[in-house]
Amino acid sequence: MSCGRRSAPLNELRAAIGAERVSTDPAELIVYAYDGAWAEGRPAVVLHPETTRHVAESLRIADRERIPVVPRGAATGLAGGAVAVEGGWCLNLARMNKILDISAADSVAVVQPGVVTAALQKEVEKRGLFYPPDPASLHMCTIGGNVSTNAGGPRCLKYGVTADYVLALEVVLPGGRVMRTGRRTIKDVAGYNLTQLLVGSEGTLGAITEITLQLIPKPAAEATALAAFPRIADACEAVGRMLASGIVPLVTELMDRIVVRAVDAYYQSRSASAGLPLDGDAVLLVAVDGDGEQVERDIDTITALLHGSGASEVRRARDAVEAEALWEARRAVSPALIRLAHDRLGEDIVVPRGHIPRMVERLRRIAAEHDLTVALFGHIGDGNLHPTILCDRRDGEMMKRVQAASGAIFDVTIDLGGSITGEHGVGIVKLDYLRRAIDPIALEAMQAIKRIFDPNGVMNPGKKLPSGVGEW
């Protein structure tokens, strides 16, 4: 394409949304070439829309010119879903960061996609309301990104994932048309549920510009306990016994010995203490919430179950400050693991809860077979595990073993009836395994949906679906 043909759409774009919102600065292009995954793709242009009209104008021009567009939030994703396409446009939605409405009467919040998750939680809790989804990156990630990947988090065992709280969306389709789906009501079965189709679509069908979220009353009380286990299998079994007792915990988080010691070392490097037991094979963090008296009964029952399941130590947080300190240690897992190796490959698998002990056993066997260190943590109560392979991308021989181990992890997950991703999304990292993970007829239906929404294949091409669909 000649220089004149390349510059014409940009000039039109600058006139349509403002030159200050269109950047071709080389340094900025580098910044927007990454997300939390290993992948890299440098855009030709970064757009900074501030209104739905800006997004619509951008997609109108991009679709006409067949220019790929990659929506982007805080770029905390771990599957490469927000990595730009070389020569394409990066649609940075971070400036669309307003909370438009919080209604106690309707129990809803209406937000733009760039609102940070923790900021929304803080605002609704001031009004006695509660927005449960809590990804580990909640202090950085945005609601738009959460919707894009259907993010979960530790509290999803009891309260569900992002999709369970999305009532309505405003989305700009390729070509610039603005579509609204859903309503400000809990019930709505008029027509197909396009809202839930868009949740988890990773920006491949359109750009979400407004989100209506359901809120619930804020629980009155919460209690947290920590348990150390000599055997990780006993920690897995303890969760099953808890759920069989009729109690649905707010959170059940597992950390193996590698993770616990990494977190402890991370705290020591900052002249602090994580307060985690170091002499066991695994640590389990459990929390319950609800009515004050019920919380006391539940935490007493759980404490007894933990002791009866082989825990070598059970410790209950005495107050909210101690509880928050324990959860801060859990949130420190990612920076702690970074210190153990030059690189890490964090997976995101889900297996039926009854197969968790077997999955944990297989993970350790895979690590030994490929001579690798695999740290394990995750939301064990809902079967969502995050095995993390510590590695060095500069070592070609090691990376061959990493690739083989990663494939083996996915193979076992699928064989056990699980999913290759629970909350991180497919992006570009897991495309090679999608054909095995999804029924072929269902995959054909997904490809047809992609063509209906995005016939020219400009929305986040090469993501979410296998090669041959939405490529640029």
Strand content: 15-25%
* Rounded average pLDDT: 94
Quick one: CATH class of the largest domain?
Answer: Alpha Beta
Given the structure, what is the number of helices?
A: 16
The percent of residues in helical segments reads 25-40%
Verbal overview:
This protein has helices at 3-17, 26-31, 52-65, 117-125, 143-149, 156-159, 194-198, 232-244, 257-269, 292-308, 320-331, 333-338, 356-369, 396-415, 431-437, 440-453, and strands spanning 22-23, 45-47, 69-72, 89-92, 99-103, 108-111, 129-130, 166-172, 178-182, 207-214, 216-217, 221-229, 251-256, 282-290, 313-316, 343-346, 349-350, 373-379, 384-391. The chain is an alpha+beta fold and 472 residues long. The chain has four domains: 3-92, Uridine Diphospho-n-acetylenolpyruvylglucosamine Reductase, domain 2 (2-Layer Sandwich); 99-217, Uridine Diphospho-n-acetylenolpyruvylglucosamine Reductase, domain 3, CATH 3.30.465.10; 220-333, 2-Layer Sandwich (Alpha-Beta Plaits), CATH 3.30.70.2190; 341-425, Alpha-Beta Plaits (2-Layer Sandwich), CATH 3.30.70.2740. Helix 1 (3-17) packs antiparallel against helix 3 (52-65), helix 8 (232-244) crosses helix 10 (292-308) and helix 13 packs antiparallel against helix 14. The longest helix is centred in the C-terminal third of the chain and has 20 residues, at 396-415. The protein is globular. The relative contact order is 0.12.
Briefly characterize the structure.
Helices cover 37% and strands 20% of the residues. The protein is α+β, with helices and mostly antiparallel strands and 472 residues long.
